[in-house]
Amino acid sequence: MAEHRISRRTKTHKGGFISFGTAPDIDCIVRSLSATGACIEVKNATGIPDAFMLLIKPERLRRSCKVAWREGGKIGVSFG
């Protein structure tokens, strides 16, 4: 598979939340992270929109995300 990322991702296992609209926050795990995007894992990806806010717990980092791909419970996002 061809690599299309701008910056290299680092594997991680950090807790986080997905936030959008007035819906309750959705727990997630950040599986990989770079300056330009991340791979996150959720129990159920149903209803998660193509754009949302991601809060990475340990650093209290907040990023605006756009979905690049989806595969089961994993979602690849770009920041911006």
Question: Summarize this, please?
Answer:
With 80 residues, the protein is mainly β. It is built from no helices and six strands.
Task: Report on this structure.
The protein has strands at residues 10-19, 26-33, 37-41, 51-56, 61-71, 74-79. The model has no long low-confidence stretch (mean pLDDT 91). A 6-stranded antiparallel barrel has the order 1-2-3-6-5-4. A hairpin with a 3-residue loop joins strand 2 (26-33) and strand 3. The chain contains no helices and 6 strands. It is 0% helix and 57% strand. It is mostly beta strands. It has one domain (10-79): predicted glycosyltransferase like domains (Thrombin, subunit H), CATH 2.40.10.220.
Secondary structure layout plus pairing:
Layout: E1 10-19, E2 26-33, E3 37-41, E4 51-56, E5 61-71, E6 74-79
Antiparallel strand pairs: 1-2, 1-4, 2-3, 3-6, 4-5, 5-6
- Strand order in the largest sheet: 1-2-3-6-5-4
* SSE string, helices as H and strands as E: EEEEEE
CATH class membership: Mainly Beta
User: Unreliable segments (pLDDT under 50, ≥5 consecutive)?
Assistant: none
- How many separate structural domains? 1
